[in-house]
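Notebook entry, structure prediction.
Reason for the run: the old model in the group folder had no record of what sequence produced it. Starting over properly, with the input documented here first.
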Amino acid sequence: MNRKLPEQPTKHSVLTDMFARTISYLRLSLTDRCNLRCMYCVTEDEKDGHLVKLGQGEMLTYEELLRVVRVAVEMGISKLRLTGGEPLVRHNIMHFIDNLAAIDGLDDIRITTNGVLLEKYGLGLIDAGVTKVNISLDTLKRERFVEITGVDCFDQVWRGIETALAVGFSPVKLNMVVMRNINDDELLDFARMSQEMPLQVRFIEFMPIGTSTRWNTDTYITSDEIMQRFTSLGELLPLERRQADGPARVFKLGSDARGTMGFISPISHHFCDRCNRLRLTSEGRLRSCLLHDEETDLKSVLRAGCSDADIKTTLLAAIRNKPKGHEMAQRLKEQGGDCHGRMSRIGG
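New structure, fully documented this time:
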C-alpha cells in the first residue's frame, strides 16, 4: 500500500481511501430505537424482550451530528442516508432534516425507513429536501408481517408506501431481505409488483450481522438463485449503471414494466471494489465496512472539545482503515463467522 491520503482535504475535494475508491457517501444511524422488532435485527438473545437500548446521552446530539456532516461535506461527502433503528422515531427529526438540507454542498439526503410513520411524515420529508426514500418490506402477507416484524401494522406501512408515491418520491425503493422458508415463496409476488407499480423492488441477500444472529446457510439465498426464479415472468433487462448508483444491479422485468428490480449481493457478488461508504453508528462510532467489526470512536473526540481539524483527522483515520474487501463468503466457509455489531446501531 503506497497510496497516501491527503492530510487536509479542501472544501469539496475528492476524498479517496487507500485503494483509490472515492468516499462520497455517509450513512448516519440516528438511533437504535425502532417501532418494529424484525427477526433479522432482533437477535436470539433479545427476542424475549430484554433489549438494551442506548441512553439519550450515549447517542450523538443533533448538534454533534450536524457538525460532523458539515465537516464531512467539506472533505468531499455529497450523499447522506439517514438510518436507524427507525430514524423517524427520533424526537424533532424534521427540524434536524431542515438543518441538514441547509448545509452547502450536501446534494443528496436519503432515508431508509420501515414505513410505519411514512404516512405522517412523507410530505414533510420531501418538502424538507429528502431526495429518496427506501422502505423495508419483507412480506405482502399481513399475518407473516406480524411474524417477521413482531407488530401488526402492515396496513399502516402500505399507506406509507402509497404516501411516498403520492408526494412525488421517485423511485420509491422497497427493500426485501430474502430468507429461505420464511418469505422466499413471495418472490414472484414482489417481482410482479415491480411490473405493475412505479417501484424499485430490491432483493437483498440475508447478511450475518449481529451477535446471536439468526443467519444460517439454510436461510441464505444467493441473488443468482433469486434471479433464476423470475424466468417464468419475463426477461430481465439490465439497466445501465450511473456513476452515482448504489450497489444494486438493476433490471426491468420485461420492457413494459412500470418499475424496476434491484439485486443487492453483499456476499455472493460483493461490491467492495466500488464501495463509497462510511457509516456513523448511533453510538457515535465510525465504521468503514458494514461486514467488518473495526470502528473508530468519534463520539469521544467530539466530547473532548475537539476542533474541526480533529474531526477531519478522525474521519481520515476511519477511511484509512477501510479494508479492501470483507471476504465474508470465505469467512463463513472457514469459520461460520459473522460480524458482531448490532444492526439497529450500525444502520445497515
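Summary: The CA atoms of residues 195 and 242 lie 22 Å apart.
The old model has been moved to the deprecated folder.
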